[in-house]
Amino acid sequence: MTRDTFDATTVKPSHWNLSSVIEQLRVSREATHNIRHHGRVRELPSREALTTIVNGLQAVLFPTHYGRPNLTDESIDFFVGDTLNTTLNRLAEQVRRGLQFSAEEAIPDEEALTRQAHDITRQFAAGLPQIRALLVSDVQAAFSGDPAATSVAEIMLCYPGTIAILYYRLAHSLHSLGSPFLARLISDIAHSLTGIDIHPAAQIGASFFIDHGTGVVIGETAIIGQRVRLYQHVTLGAKRFPADEQGVLIKGVPRHPIVEDDVVIYAGATILGRITIGAGSTIGGNVWLTQGVPPGSNVAQAQMRND
Amino acid sequence: MTRDTFDATTVKPSHWNLSSVIEQLRVSREATHNIRHHGRVRELPSREALTTIVNGLQAVLFPTHYGRPNLTDESIDFFVGDTLNTTLNRLAEQVRRGLQFSAEEAIPDEEALTRQAHDITRQFAAGLPQIRALLVSDVQAAFSGDPAATSVAEIMLCYPGTIAILYYRLAHSLHSLGSPFLARLISDIAHSLTGIDIHPAAQIGASFFIDHGTGVVIGETAIIGQRVRLYQHVTLGAKRFPADEQGVLIKGVPRHPIVEDDVVIYAGATILGRITIGAGSTIGGNVWLTQGVPPGSNVAQAQMRND
Amino acid sequence: MTRDTFDATTVKPSHWNLSSVIEQLRVSREATHNIRHHGRVRELPSREALTTIVNGLQAVLFPTHYGRPNLTDESIDFFVGDTLNTTLNRLAEQVRRGLQFSAEEAIPDEEALTRQAHDITRQFAAGLPQIRALLVSDVQAAFSGDPAATSVAEIMLCYPGTIAILYYRLAHSLHSLGSPFLARLISDIAHSLTGIDIHPAAQIGASFFIDHGTGVVIGETAIIGQRVRLYQHVTLGAKRFPADEQGVLIKGVPRHPIVEDDVVIYAGATILGRITIGAGSTIGGNVWLTQGVPPGSNVAQAQMRND
Amino acid sequence: MTRDTFDATTVKPSHWNLSSVIEQLRVSREATHNIRHHGRVRELPSREALTTIVNGLQAVLFPTHYGRPNLTDESIDFFVGDTLNTTLNRLAEQVRRGLQFSAEEAIPDEEALTRQAHDITRQFAAGLPQIRALLVSDVQAAFSGDPAATSVAEIMLCYPGTIAILYYRLAHSLHSLGSPFLARLISDIAHSLTGIDIHPAAQIGASFFIDHGTGVVIGETAIIGQRVRLYQHVTLGAKRFPADEQGVLIKGVPRHPIVEDDVVIYAGATILGRITIGAGSTIGGNVWLTQGVPPGSNVAQAQMRND
Amino acid sequence: MTRDTFDATTVKPSHWNLSSVIEQLRVSREATHNIRHHGRVRELPSREALTTIVNGLQAVLFPTHYGRPNLTDESIDFFVGDTLNTTLNRLAEQVRRGLQFSAEEAIPDEEALTRQAHDITRQFAAGLPQIRALLVSDVQAAFSGDPAATSVAEIMLCYPGTIAILYYRLAHSLHSLGSPFLARLISDIAHSLTGIDIHPAAQIGASFFIDHGTGVVIGETAIIGQRVRLYQHVTLGAKRFPADEQGVLIKGVPRHPIVEDDVVIYAGATILGRITIGAGSTIGGNVWLTQGVPPGSNVAQAQMRND
Amino acid sequence: MTRDTFDATTVKPSHWNLSSVIEQLRVSREATHNIRHHGRVRELPSREALTTIVNGLQAVLFPTHYGRPNLTDESIDFFVGDTLNTTLNRLAEQVRRGLQFSAEEAIPDEEALTRQAHDITRQFAAGLPQIRALLVSDVQAAFSGDPAATSVAEIMLCYPGTIAILYYRLAHSLHSLGSPFLARLISDIAHSLTGIDIHPAAQIGASFFIDHGTGVVIGETAIIGQRVRLYQHVTLGAKRFPADEQGVLIKGVPRHPIVEDDVVIYAGATILGRITIGAGSTIGGNVWLTQGVPPGSNVAQAQMRND
What we know:
6 copies of one chain form a homohexamer. Helices cover 44% and strands 11% of the residues of chain A. The first copy, chain A, is α/β, with parallel strands linked by helices. Chains A, B, C, D, E, F: It is an enzyme of class 2 (transferase).
């Protein structure tokens, strides 16, 4: 279908008092409501570039599903190699930009920054085969965990959980290698695409499956074992935030749940605080849980009232 | 040839050990973590193509709302006709691709597949007027069900529920005609756009209205009557998944609720299992419900605790 | 990564019975299921144009975060000025279109409409510095309210709540100036991007922070004080909809909660009706609340059942 | 907002003395070298829009060659109709803009201008079938006049002369209907594409063929009969320009050649002034001709010198 | 610089008598001026696809000049391999389409056509290294033949002759392998870009250099030796076209000049007919030559007249 | 009009012997036909970037003709300022790249190169008002020199000569400031757009007018006075190229004509060598001239032969 270009401007241009508005915005920006970093100018990482980069990594990891149709035996490695090279060059630049924001105070000189960005990128590349192995375990968990799933291809293409976990595993690797800002940006792109919000610092074992997924939140210090299954609206959050004597929040303290192996958490459950959900437990839908449960527990919501 | 676009690469290219990473990825792909289908190469349906197709169908169904501005009496049918033709040609190709994944074992020969894709597409086209009638009933239900709605145009353009239902009704038609993979892909696109996840196999009657909608999940075997109204975070899910003796999930068993005519389900309610919500019932917010209720019921959550 | 263009049409064109389908669609459109406004043709506002407009406004308000990299002292005001001018011209046209839909009955003549659109746009521009001040307070609230936040840049780029509030404050200004349709469209774009659904007519004070945010719904007549913090899945909704004697919903009646200053509402809480949450209260996760609570309250969900 | 695309800017931004340059440019623009029309602001026609319009007209006239592949009997008229409608709407707008520049002194009011633009466009549309007939005669002349031509398709797709004549015939129609500025713009687009420069006011009969064509110039008042064939570098130009007593050129005086039916003019011939090349004549390569020749003439260059 | 999108349609849509025009166009198309091939529908090769293909081949042949900046030793072959594979797949499809037009009468069945297209494409690929060798000789001839040339990079990027010869050598290879239509289309693209028109069937030896080049025409049966240099406006054309008894042109007869090794032909010379320019000759500017000259000749134009 | 995307690949992928071709290309590239510069890797200037840059400069110089429609008094300087800033940043990067190719032997270090690029760019910016003055004189010369010209707008939009001179004056400025490679690239872009080839090192006075223009060539050392008028196919070229004792061409020697003030040169004239065309002379069409003529001369071609 053809759409005409969108910004037909039939309204004639007018006088907008541009000078006055711009003057006030400058005052707001530079004086009254200045939020700009006071130091040398730092280029921000680009959301669009990261989207392209993650698309490239998807294609590198699963060329027949996310790459190009009809790759042949003689051509597939050329495709993977060229895509990987392009993608790593782009990534190194974004890592470099992000590094400027990771260390708040002392930014190393440009050359050291670039070297560091290259080292991180090279290590990230070296870890891709291992990430692929984890992702295959996740896809297989989805296939065996959802009776509605009819093929691996369906899980690769139609499950938001697959996308969320894929972005998470890439972001987690960057986070671990020392590129936290970039990692957060990647997780926010996944959040926007899927409604699933996984902090890249969270630790998640193999064979992880999120079904439907909208509204899932997994916090910064959460630890999740192997073969865990979550449904939509599940929150693994913090109960309270420790603050110092001035009331300033202390960052980085463990404050999210530990979920052991083989746990299933149904839709809408809210689990808060540094508590442990024992291995093999099942947490029912809409449950609000702030205390740990032993392995093999079966927790369900209080009964409803039927008027 | 590919030219890069937006992402300025100020970081100089580096040595990434490409050969080593690519070698390991090949081993992962072909040996250790091979998830590729073992048969002839099958082109996957394209998410981008389907987005274009659904945009085309929207324009065909509601040319003044989703088509092109300022269509006139002498031109509207040319627009509808040309858009429909283009869209059906594209759809037929995607249906063909999808068919290869529907039947896991024996794929018919290429020519039979193409013929089948054309038949499905032709029947789908024939059903469009009926789909339009249903969608008009849905829009009218929104207008009369939401006091914040000010015009039909607002419902067509600003309500995620409208988009989710439109995608669902198109996907359901394709599912019914034998193109389940494509149907799933369409429903996942709607999910990403709206946060509303309706399985295309679900059966939903006329005058259906979802308000706000983020987090709504409607499962594969759910059946919904006429004039039903849902709010955000409502789950119509499965309680448990029957497995066979080897522990493999049995697919296709009815396991989601039946919601009869004129039911209203408020935000956050989770309704699980093959239970029936009787006609005219009201289910309150955040309720967790695993047993059926008779017609005219009024179910609310247990009381909160006020410390 | 290079993707080949997506709609390769290997399936040969077929006979689709176009004439018959088009004929039936025309009958549906013009007779049996006609939902078109009966008056003069009115161009709809364009979602794409509004996205471009909001991007432009973001760049005008925060040029170093959302504008162009590497703006210098001598160039920044040229950028802001040119972007603002372009954006206001586009906005005036969309406001003009939207005005046709705000007043259902009597649309003023074209010239009056254009003049009105210009007036609204000019007033909107004049209010931008004040909107910027509010947004800075919101960003600071996020920084001090989330222990996981590491920099202002992270909050500007990686927090869906930031985007949702930014869109809301722009939409609310347009709503207040008499452009409700446009305001709704902007809020729906934010909803699609973030999963957060704030009606533009809601009133929200400074230093507002939504964490994670997916599934948050804030209704049309809600009133929120200063320094309020919400988490994901929080609903500030209506309990019931007053109808007139014919059963037609009465529009515009206050029916959503009032949340006073310094309230925190945790994930999944559903608060319905024109009730007041007193200042300084804390509402726990998953609570379903339909009655007001006094200042300083601490409301939590009923206990779960542990089988 | 505009985002940069392809041009990586590794050079850091610098201080360009923007204010000074901009100030001087303003002085040049408004005072010392002011070439702006002194009257109300007039939007210029858009070269890009005209390119789109001509592409649309090509598709309308020859849908299987310039339109869309694989049009079927049931779909072709929908395509032609929709493309024609879109194209005429675009054309009417460009005609309206162009009209402001055709009449230098008194521009009619906006409404009269719009009405006039619509009348011209409607008449232009009515003439399209006749233009198609002429173009088919031209294509057939190419096929029978060039031994290297192997198919009609080759002539439609690979001959710059075909494009130049097609653009000319469309431009000539617009010129005749009172839209000379637009006509000139179209002829300049063709000139840029093909190196062939035909003034839209020239009159050219059926079955016209230009082979190779680069460097052909046909002046404003040239008249060309039927079945004429030109090769590259042929000029049909003016010898001198009559001026009035103040030395100002008199515009519109016939000053270019008349070429009668069945004339062939070989590469590089320069024919100047209001002279007549009699029917059936052959003009040799590189000839410089400023006097008319009778029918049946055979003119060749003076002999070369061989040192 | 930002340009607003171009087709703002401020002119309201009008009544264009679409039905009447479309009806007349159909009659012209199907009856009175029908130029369509009478046989099965054949997709035309695509000019846009060929432009992409030639860009790809340029990148494959000279990756550092026409490919991607900053290719490294470890990445260059991945780039070349992936670009070559993509380009050959695209080329095979265009060759297939073109083959339908090469043989006017009997088109082989689809499968044979595809097989033939693959064979041609595979042979074409095998010839690329040899084409590269020729092109390097051409570039070196330009560098040593033009005192204004300052570097190889300048010749690769700024000389239209380089582009024209590159396109010619690719087109000539396709022509020789049996894909004449495609070859012609490629040569016409080069013609449009450079003003240089070389028929792909012409035979041209190594170290060929065209300076400036606009208006150069080299005919179908021309034969050019090694180390030949041409300037702008040089025509190597046919003098007359032999026709059969019915007056139909006989196609394929040798009718263009033979230019032996080490000849220089200056600007504007027109050389017509199957004549031989002996090795080492110099032909002066604007000469019109229809008889052969022995080796070592020095031909100049007759003297000018100075009034 | 909608065109489907162009590279539908209905032909199945095949085996292309990629490895063999790639291997041979590598050998050709690195050994047998290596034309790569032997030194550090140097990024080439980008033709696309330069096109964008020239578009930006056009908009800066003539914002109402080449910029954005409907600029107002309050907005025009914001537009000019922002466009100029963006364009200069882009230009500085391209100048930097080009500098690497200007000095063949010793490239200064990166920082010196960047500084030099900024200096050139800053001086270039400072010269823009003067360039504008010259261009206005050129436009006025066209208006008074062509009886077919109807308005300044027509000359700005529809005359290839205007574009060619505009590109030339910008390129000449860059050439003079020490950026010859970039200057050549700009002149080649103009050549491709207009068929007019002006070497950026040529010196051309004010009020210069080229009518039609296809095939005009003006050589590197040509000097043209004020108020000169040229027509299509005029060559101001070199007669012979002085070589040193090894036969290597000596670069930079004056070898093109000097054309004094108020000269008119008609279509197809070829003027070669370092000769002087005296002020006020008229050179007729197709003349081949290798000796200077005194002021006020009137040179015409020898008579034709009429068989």
